[in-house]
Predict the 3D structure of the following.
Amino acid sequence: MLIHKPADIPYSEVTPKHVYLNRRRFLTAAPGLGAAAAALMGPFSARAEKLAATHNNNYNVGTEKLTPLEYITQYNNYYEFGTGKDEPYLLAKKLKTSPWTVKIDGEVAKPKTLDLDAVMKLAPLEERVYRHRCVEAWSIVVPWIGFSLSTLLKQVEPTAKAKFVAFETLYDPKVMLSSREAHIDFPYVEGLRLDEAMNPLALLSFGLYGETLPNQNGAPMRLVVPWKYGFKSIKSVVRIRFVEKQPPTTWNLSAANEYGFYSNVNPKKDHPRWPQNKERRLGEGESVLGSITRRNTLMFNGYESQVASMYTGMDLMKNY
């Protein structure tokens, strides 16, 4: 899930944040809605802090508009906090994001365990606007804040045996659903080939829209892989392992015929239950579910020139 801001357009002109804030004031002031409205708006506003970041003009999506903040923060997949799209927004406020550490080990010369502050100090933060495509045929455009994942991975010096990178999400059964309730195994795991993880497009993100990540969007640290379907961009990362063999991934374990390891956006490869050649952009149309704007899905989600060379000679219908 990702967004773009042209360099010559200020936030005030492209971000409908004043609409968002006015909506919050209205809800909290309305008779009988005060407490309920504050609870609904809280998961984003209560934890948000400003992040200083320089806009990187090398990452943009042309003239495509940013998706309104409320769609990005209120329509999410985060099964640890609910299987409905609206549930993570309401329930993820239970997630404790401080203190936070990430362990990096496996086939490396210098394994490390770093706290969040140490990770964020590895490189200057930059804003990149990416488009995102979900397997359920919806998409968004987001201004993420972070830096290339490779910056972190190089710190541990991968060995010659390292061929893949495995990622693991925090799992806290005290505040999260059980595997039985969510119908997938926890902790959530994902993986990339080493060259994919080292690609400059792969982003380690700490924020969006100029502020720290909301819990429901993967606070305090998540992966963003814009040329793949959204479920590959694992949230709330606590462990990264370099491995020799292809690691298991949550959705591939759950339904291998529907969710392959690579999960590159490929409009020619339909999901068994729906086509993938069209998508709806959230925030364009009448509502999230009633969106009337449909657009053609782009190969590699529009990042073909940056990533296609990694898959030369591969059958992308078979290696979905």
